[in-house]
From TrEMBL:
The chain crosses the membrane at residues 47-65. GO terms for biological process: methylation; steroid biosynthetic process. This is Methyltransferase. Its EC number is 2.1.1.-. Belongs to the class I-like SAM-binding methyltransferase superfamily. Erg6/SMT family. InterPro entries: Methyltransf_11, MeTrfase_SMT, SAM-dependent_MTases_sf, Sterol_MeTrfase_C. One of its GO terms (molecular function) is S-adenosylmethionine-dependent methyltransferase activity. PROSITE patterns: SAM_MT_ERG6_SMT. Keywords: Endoplasmic reticulum, Lipid biosynthesis, Lipid metabolism, Membrane, Methyltransferase, Microsome, S-adenosyl-L-methionine, Transferase, Transmembrane, Transmembrane helix. It is found in: Microsome membrane. It is a single-pass membrane protein. Residues 125-402 form the SAM-dependent methyltransferase Erg6/SMT-type domain.
Length: 403
């Protein structure tokens, strides 16, 4: 080895050095031979062979893992899966059990009178799943219709910019994001419009994550977040120039109550727009499969029930809003919203195995796998609802508080 190294470092005679072609071929050949013989010698040592095998297997698994993840999968480090949100590690298992029990449904009519306790369990839900969502989807916790040639991220941003345009968000305005998650939409909208955006979420863990990401993006002067319930807004009346709500109003026990709170904090003449999760006219409450799908969507997404389009419009009017626009953005997309769910679910099979083993070896808290199983069931139901066209997560309602 020693002599080979010395050999390779021997200066090339000047006559050869002046022939770049010879040098260009011979030198790499020598280096390859040297490397091969070094590897051969190293392989004679068993420990090195085993280490090389383990590194090889890990690298291959990682590459496959990234490949199946597609556009949506594996957005953060896998180590995030062991995080427990704002729940103490030892409370995680009890959290998912209580959650599953609360949201159990079977007749397509929601959780009944229990619905008034929904916010508490919505909070538990987001403590359990925020890291999963970030890991498997990204920082925007919503769907989007996708154009041909558009990436998943581009479709998400376009969907967010659309809602900002609906409420005419612009520089100098103060906009409310009702149910803001970890702030993916808030950051896009602040950049797109120049408006100041205040988000509200019921989940403490999301406040921490959002604050961190706002700082990282250099948007902490435009964006801020508060913890609280959008059913009891901690803001003065008539204080916002606009409000949007992305796939969050579906968690409200009574939609009109949420709309009334938003109405109260908006200035007269200001706009409010919401992407609602609703059943479509194709949903048939006498069809057992439709009912099961809707129940599974509600159970796996912390919903007290799933409402219809007429019910949402009635809630808007009850709150005092004028309806400016309403329509379903799921219709006519080049790539339908449920397609991304299908890709994510393919990746999720691997995550399912990983979470099971991480839990077994104590790398993730007890209950992590059960939480992932719950999310998988929800994903299947969402996909099927999209295929049948009985449900939409993007029914846009744009409303205005009268002058
Ligand atoms: C599906 S996530 C959507 C988050 C965000 N709009 C986005 O698109 O990334 C729903 C959000 O609504 C929030 N939420 C649900 N019920 C709430 C309540 N009563 N008060 C405040 N936020 C609530 C959750 O904490 C979560 O952040």
């Amino acid at each position: 080895m020693q002599c080979q190294l010395v050999y390779s470092m021997t200066p090339v005679p000047s006559s050869t050095a002046s022939q770049p072609n010879t040098l260009g071929i011979i030198a790499p050949l020598q280096v390859t031979k040297m490397a091969a013989s070094m590897v051969e010698k190293l392989m004679e040592k068993k420990a090195v062979t085993y280490t090389a095998a383990v590194v090889g297997v890990c690298a291959t698994t990682y590459l496959i893992y990234k490949k199946i993840g597609g556009d949506t999968g594996f957005r953060t480090s896998i180590t995030k899966l062991g995080n427990t949100g704002s729940l103490a590690r030892e409370d995680f298992a009890a959290g998912i059990d209580a959650y599953n029990e609360f949201f159990q449904q079977s007749d397509g009519k929601g959780v009944g009178e229990r619905k008034f306790n929904t916010p508490k369990f919505v909070d538990t839900f987001y403590s359990l799943i925020t890291d999963f969502y970030e890991y498997g989807w990204g920082q925007s916790f919503h769907f989007a219709p996708r154009d041909k040639g558009e990436s998943f991220d581009e479709s998400i941003w376009r969907h967010e910019e659309r809602i900002a345009d609906q409420i005419k968000a612009g520089a100098g305005m103060h906009i409310l994001d009702a149910g803001c998650g970890v702030g993916g939409p808030m950051r896009t909208i602040a950049k797109h419009s120049g408006a100041n955006v205040t988000g509200i979420t019921i989940n403490e863990y999301q406040v921490g994550r959002c604050t961190e990401e706002n700082k990282k993006a250099g948007l902490d002067t435009l964006c801020n977040i508060v913890q609280g319930s959008f059913l009891e807004m901690p803001f003065p009346a008539n204080s916002f120039d606009g409000c949007y709500c992305i796939e969050a109003a579906c968690h409200a026990p009574v939609l009109a109550e949420l709309y009334k709170e938003i109405f109260k904090v908006l200035k007269p003449g200001a706009h409010f727009a919401s992407y609602e999760w609703l059943t479509t006219p194709l949903y048939d409450s006498n069809n057992a499969e439709h009912v099961r799908i809707v129940d599974d969507i509600a159970e796996g997404n912390a919903l007290p029930d799933v409402r219809s389009i007429p019910a949402a419009l009635a809630a808007a009017k009850e709150a005092g809003f004028e309806v400016v626009f309403h329509g379903d953005y799921a219709l006519g997309a080049d790539i339908p919203w449920e397609q991304a769910m299908k890709t994510a679910r393919r990746a999720a099979f691997l995550t399912d195995v990983l979470t099971k083993w991480m839990e077994r070896f104590g790398l993730a808290p007890r209950g992590t796998w059960a939480t992932h199983q719950m999310l998988l069931r929800a994903a299947e139901a969402l996909e099927r609802s999209g295929d049948l066209g009985i449900f939409t997560p993007m029914y846009l309602v744009t409303l205005r508080k009268p002058m």
